[in-house]
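Q: I have 211 residues here and want to know how they pack in 3D. Can you give me a structure?
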Amino acid sequence: MAAHETRMLLLGAVAMFEPVNGYQIRRELLSWQVDRWAHTNPGSIYHGLTSLTNLGHLVRHDLVDGGREVAVYELTESGRAELDRLMIEALETVDVFERSAFHVAFSMLPLLDRDRVVRSLTRRRVELERTVKELADQEPGAAPPHATRSMLLWLDLAVAELAWLRETIEEVRSGRLAFELGEEWGWTPPPDDPGWQMNTDREKYRALLGR
């Protein structure tokens, strides 16, 4: 699953910040602590960028920036299609024992349009309701007491997620949660956020690419 999540993270990071260099992607993703919750090994990031380029999902440009060679990446049409597929699958697939892929997709929600997000989260809600019922309907005494207590924890976590999910769907549907790229979020990054430098570099890379 870690390779699956790393691919989604890398495609998403390029989509959000392109054109962007590999060091910036690594620094940004590590600031999200992806090594802790997404099982993404920091050492796999550069390898992943190369693999995705070889697959045709990314395009690499070798530029000279102030006398320094730098490789910057952009998403291709196939990369966009692959990212959409991975995100939708992760948003809609319910696994109460492993939610890493869902968290990866949700962290990059602005890359999908509002209607698509509402549809996917609604499908997740329906599947999660079925899962909660299945866990709650287990026969008493069907498992040893300690195992039963463990399953009650999974049930409680699933119920909590379901309540959160219902609220989130309404936030998205109503527009109270602004997330599409270009919308006003009502939030400004702090002055020391690395995103400011990434924006500056992005404009410089676009100029070098003749954009």
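Q: Anything worth noting?
A: The longest strand covers residues 58-65. The beta strands are 20-21, 58-65, 68-75.
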